[in-house]
Queue: 3 jobs
Job 1
Amino acid sequence: LVDYLKSHAAKYGLDASRLCAWHFSAGGTVAGTMLGEKSPASCVVLTYAILSLGEGDRDPRLGPHSALVQARERGDRFPPTLVVRAGRDAKTLNESIDAFVAAALARNAPVSLINYPAGDHAFEILNDTDETRRVIAQSIAWVKSRLQPR
């Protein structure tokens, strides 16, 4: 997808040097790719995303796709990253987010966190509240601020 966007950037009016990868839920299982050494992303957003592959984190074929593995190994070289945590999400999912944030901060990664204590998984669909709208607006504003032309 990234290669396609870069090669067709002019057609779509895109600046290929300013791309943000936004992962939701199970899309987090490949988020490590956008946090890895060859990431084309200018920024990354991880919204209630699964950030560890569990036992797969130790597999040399799968580990590079794990955001947690990337945080432990190269968090200090991440693109700016926003993590959006839904407080009422599944315990194991939030544990993967918490482990990722701790590992990233231990490496002094450029990570920001929005914790939505009353948020459910898929809160933008399930929780029609002012707080949901605030979290969404804050996330979009964060992305826009990272993609401003320099």
Job 2
Amino acid sequence: MRLKALLRSAGLDDPIGGSGSEVDRVVHDSRVVASGDLFCCVPGTTYDGHEFAERAVRAGAVAVIAERTLDLPVPVVIADSVRRVMPHLAAAVEGWPSRNLDLVGVTGTNGKTSVVHLLDAVLERAGRTTATHGTLSGGRTTPEATDLQPLLRSWVATGVDAAAIEVSSHALSQHRVDGTTFAAVAFTNLSRDHLDFHGSMDDYEVAKARLFDGTFSNHGVVVVADQAGRRMADRARDAAMTVVEVGEPTEVAVSPDGVRFSWRSRTVTVHTGGRFTVANALVAAELSAVLGIHEDTVVEGLAAARPVPGRFELVALEGGPQVVVDYAHTPDALTHALVAAREVTTGKVLVVFGCGGDRDRGKRSEMGRAAESGADQIVVTSDNPRGEPPEGVIADILTGMERPPTLVEPDRRRAIAEVLGLASRTDLVLLAGRGHEDVQEVADERVLFDDRVVVREEWDKLAVGRGDG
């Protein structure tokens, strides 16, 4: 695409006054620049892209987008905010791929992954060619614009006609999905998370609300179970969007391996446990309806959906307690996971959890309170400590608890082994915080660690110790 046409698409002027060079890609990482690229100097908290502009030109960049004048042998286009114009440039150079498929965006503190997973199952049942991206994909929940737009183009090129992505608050704040057209967008809920980035719940909500300002989609599905949801629905309507509200479900039945509920006079079964699954499934159902899928097909698709990895996932231990692995890593999610655990066991509820290092410290005490309110026995351990000593993270958790936990064990494997020794066959053990993750971030290392694998390994060791093996 010619530089002049590309700049015009983003509302920028061509500094050389001619058609300019042919631009093949829009990039923001100087390490991947190739001949024919347009390099965007994105200022960041750690690095400033302007410092790498010269390197990008040496690597073949034909022009540079910057926020200040740079002495370079290629055109330098000045923008008030590189981050704001970059996604439009990235979308334009890729041919605005989101306009060529039914793309759904899902935001909210909890439930995004489940909604995307369940919606994908329905779309497949309807005969659509699908793709998804989110937490389960690895890397960023929502890619940077310079990665997202090529991804969408690749989907279109391979015949994908319907797709769903998770849209994080970070992505909305950083304009990663700007320039993207969604057939529909959805909001699940809002509770404390990422305040190390957003600073306050108000700013966090404002970030989520960008997806409902009418510039991304004309259609929204919003869970209105609380005030945040009702405010989101009102914002969407004020932006002239059509809104489907998701309220409290009816006729709900829960079991360790699934839920059953009523939707539009139909009985729906989903094979992912936890009462909270119902709201996620309802959002997926309503999104499917917005996309024109018949209600019977929606019910069939939800019933056929595989359990969501790491979301109230049951781990069978022969002769042992019920064990559930769940991604709950916010106070609200942990509260709901513990309520769900209580519903499906006749015995005690034991929980093993920690908090991530180098992240929102303020939520750690709230996680402690949530665990104390919902569990009979509590084991506080490490999650992903990253650059923090696990003991310091644990100390922050304990400040929210009125009484000492059953056990404090920074080594997560030992903590899991200990809780198995505490639990009886009628009890339920909830391993919270990591869900599907199979790598633990410790200092500068990424150590293989999957709660689902580790709990089986530790149970086998106990079985050998008892003479069962």
Job 3
Amino acid sequence: MSKTIIVSNRLPVRIIQEDNSFYYIPSEGGLATGLSSIYKQGDNLWVGWPGESVKKEEDKEQIRADLRKENMTPVFLSKKLIQNFYEGFSNDTIWPVFHYFLQFANFDHKLFDAYVEANKKFCDAVLDVASEDDTIWIHDYQLLLLPQMVRKKLPHVGIGFFQHIPFPSYEVFRMIPWRKKILRGMLGADLVGFHTYDDMRHFLSSVSRLAGIPNSRGRIEAANRIIEVDSFPMGIDYQKYALSAASPKTIDKEIQFRSSLGNQKLIVSIDRLDYSKGLPKRLEAFEQFLIQYPEFQEKVSLIMVVVPSRDNVPQYRELKETVDLLVGRINGRLAKLNWMPIHYFYRSFELESISAFYRMAHVAMVTPMRDGMNLVCKEFIASKLDKTGVLVLSEMAGASKELSDAILINPNNSEQMIEAIHQALTMPEEEQIVHISLMQETLKRYNIHHWVKMFMNRL
């Protein structure tokens, strides 16, 4: 009987080992939520790395047996391979190039060799469980070579590939020495999906100009196959965030936070530590806003949550130092005894606390330099039960194509960002309600479950 196999770098659980026992912590990410409707059914499977390097064979067998009960198959990777494949080529080569940060890209042949080796290990794991009449859905930039590897072994199997980060323009993509191998890897799929039309267009341009394969209206004819390429904007689990915003625990958190912060307007900023998120420019714009509009001093504060990420990597460590220094300088320059301009948290929070921040915030600032989609802005909109609030959103985020009722800005334009903050804080409530209501309707309709259904139906 045919089945659907989901393949991603990480499984929707992570392993924790304590006292020779294994514990499995479920992921709360949007992808895990959306795809649970697929991989938990019947004989369907999710193939991926379990988040831990495991050496002993008996431990691997135990983990395989445990995960098989939950419709999952682990791919075991050594620490060295994780370092060179995931931390190396995936995040030191693909990530910076695809986000237009070429100055951070590391073009090292050893890292690419590790990337090939890891993709082969994923291929072996897929081949152990797949047959020709199955459907395989592969996810994201860590596995760009995998579709073609599987296609060579199972020429008639249905393969979908979805990329969750941007795909760069031809001029940028061609900087990668292994560009043709990457394209050929992706072209092993029957359906290639991106968040936006722009990413799809960049991919088709590279296929035409680098691989020499023509395309028309999103259809590529290669090796006697038709490959479809399209955009599928990913949504969120709207109900999850709306219900969380209404929960008693979230409301208790909000009361607790408000009693500490006092009666002032709040801007919320929530991001993972990454140079693509535009954190320094956001802080500098907020500082200049307070200087240009001194009447807002002591009346508005920025709650900035930065979730730790790869802070052992030099670029990320330097970014954190820059953010720390900026926050310290701005607070030192402008703070009063009863008012702090920026409340800065370098850690993650549980969902109820994040929901409380969303509920409290008059404005959300989501201003990445480049982002495939960005779900924080969608979570903020879903959490505004009273329909008041304003979203300031970078036009470089994929979500900007759907959320046109936000205040859209170019994150490189500091004057525009300053004026957007002012516009957001002074927008009449009736206007806020109109914009939030329209965006909520869009997000309800095009949620994570709609995204999964749309892609799978096409595949």
